[in-house]
Amino acid sequence: MRYRLLGHVACAFGLASLVSLASPARAAEIRTTGTPGAPDATTTIDGRQLPAPDPQFGGEIKDDALNSKPWWAPRIVPPKGAPNILLIITDDAGFGVPSTFGGVIPTPTMDRIANDGLRYNNIHSTALCSPSRAALITGRNHHSVGFGVISEQSTGFPGYNSIISKDKATIGRILRDNGYATAWFGKDHNTPAFAASSVGPFDQWPIGMGFEYFYGFVGGDANQWQPNLFRNTTQIYPFEGKPGWNLVTGMADDAIDYLNRLNQTLPDKPFFVKYAPGATHAPHHPTKEWVDKISAMHLFDDGWNKLREKIFENQKRLGVIPENTQLEPWPTEILPNWDEVPPQDRKLFIRQADVVAAYAAYNDHEIGRVVQAIEDMGKLDNTLIIYINGDNGTSAEGGPLGTPNEVAFFNGINKMPTDVQMKWYDVWGTEQTYNHMSAGWSWAFDTPFTWFKQNASRLGGIGQNMAVSWPARITDKGGLRQQFMHFIDVVPTILEVTRIPAPDMVDGIKQAPIEGTSFAYTFDKENAKAPSQHKVQYFEMMGQWALYDDGWLLSTKVNRAPWEAFGAANPDPLNNQVLELYDLNTDFSQSQNVADKHPDKVAQLKEAFIAEARKYQVFPMDASVAARIVAPRPNITAGRTEFTYTMPMVGLPQGDSPSILNSSYTITADIDVPEGGGEGMILTSGGRFGGYGFYLLKGKPVFLWNLVDLKRVKWEGADALAPGRHTIEFDFKYDGLGVGTLAFNNMSGLGRPGTGTLKVDGNTVATQEMQRTLPMILQWDESFDIGSDTLTGVNDADYQPPFALTAKLIKLTLKVDRPTLSQEDVKNLQNSEAVAVDGNPIHHMQPGPQ
Fold first, then answer.
1. Which residues contact 121 (CB under 8 A, 6 or more apart)?
2. Pair 362, 290: CB distance under 8 Å
3. Which pTM does this prediction carry?
4. What integer is the mean pLDDT of 216-222?
5. Fewer Cβ neighbours under 10 Å: the N or C end of the chain?
């Protein structure tokens, strides 16, 4: 609770019941309750300055307490009647996923919200995860708040540095300082990857952005069985860990517990909860119970063409798309028709779809438990629930074939043969996979639109839907709203309905204007068909862009499928484009390109896009994808080549730990082996789906590389270490090219071979060549651990985490010799043509569950 009051003026007026401290256009009424100066007094604030200034003491001080008058500052509360707010945002789900909007996947909770309130069929994202989320919590465009792309691709430009600047306070901060309880559950993909360690800084973590409580994971994706989980800024490990424990249920449990504790402690304090589950982002990890339920429904047996047609028919029947909406032909140039898919491939693909559908249904069920808990508290009537389906369109990053390991995709392996994938068929969706589905299903799940997540110029990438309920205010139960909206409109809507103004100053910093438009006007039945108040909106993601202008949509023709992350980048993404034009007033699905009929409109809207791009920090535009992952950024290891550790430490995230990819390196461990021998992890980074480990196994030194769960390269000493002091060393000589000589025209400096040598007390005990190394990332939801292994291990056949080191670690040293990239090198890298991982590396690896 906060006990503050706005300045000295209210004190001078004796805490009058109504004091206006700003112009009528900006003022929030100040209302007080209780006896001024008494412990039970409360007040609202005008909200211009956050935090509200401390008031002057209002009592009287004499030489002795008996003749003095005590005085307490009133507790700050929101305006009377301000609603509780539950903001739900699911992940990687297109327009055709939920049953609420015609999908075949049952989402009864979203149905419930829609039937109690309103359906919205015209709200838009940015086409990518954390950019959409940054827009959602700030009310500003994603480039305005530094999230032109995800943090893992951040570059040193204001629109792309993944830092939400101090002049753009989040809705959590605004509501907290106005007396709300604020909490964030689930995915946090808005903390920079280079600021996610336990040493902070924490100003870009949820608790530093105005959320008093955080329970969830930091980063884009998370293993739902073994997540890198945090409470506030403390890693939770081991977590509940019961057999079958899953984060989808775990975070619902924690949210319900939080809400009940709040209700029992201070029942009149309104809450703002951001609820952001990992579903349905890869890996798709539902429980077996839900997989069995969905499989028994046989939703996908007829394939993706029929699925798309069925969803389209359902959408028209429900009235959530206009009757004249047209469905474009199936894109046979990139995805086969179902009747062309071989029978064994069909079996695999149906399994993929069953699992992702189970994940979506399971997630909606757990959200329902949270909603029910609010009802059980008697608070549902005055709770505004905003349930947004997807932070972008459905993901197609599994490629045409899908994958049992998404980490493989990010390392350039995006067409793993189906016969190889079948080795994981029986464990698909379990802790043994980091799975993703075929893009054929993704195309169908974006019905009636086309294309996917990442494609900012197509409605399949940016077209979302949502359900909103607020029984105390919304009376048009089950109504449909078709006004154009964007994620940046959520914050101003919340501010309007709570009657809390956007602040002028936060922590002494003048605030940039909110860029969204409130859609609270749509809550009233008489405004059901009112014109859209949000008139103009730009879109841009990795060089693909569009501009909406009062029904018109200028968009670039898609020139890259999402799974084509390693191709040559468009050198001039502003101008080197084929421009298309759509009239969305008559063409809901963006299916009728009319650019040839309106060349003047095309030219006009392009100029308008350029103006918006300049206004909102979109320049410099960059169409590169994978190259930005390996571009340098200011993590805490930047500029360092030697790292020393003298005690166990776990939980250092990938973005803040030393990277040894595409480099030569030497890891040296000085240890003292106890009587009876030693065992356990010395150093590991990554996990089951990509990483390395340096450990003692039955006393023998081992260094192992896990190449995205397809092959494990192992160096092992023949003899167990005798008790006493030893120095064990792993030295890797990378076959990359030196400084200034990297052949960037084909990224051949990445993922190249190398030779590793394992030594004990200066003597070589094992040496071999690695024909391939990982070029891009390790498993990025696993950490850099010393002395034990959190979450998953790099080799299940050798050990199970935590595999604590029983020898005493005296000193661990990591030295990295990596090529230095000049600005010209980086420029060439961003315009490169291919990664040095060949197109079909499977033949050189031994795949399958280990």
1. 95, 101, 320, 321, 465, 480, 481, 482
2. yes
3. 0.93
4. 95
5. N
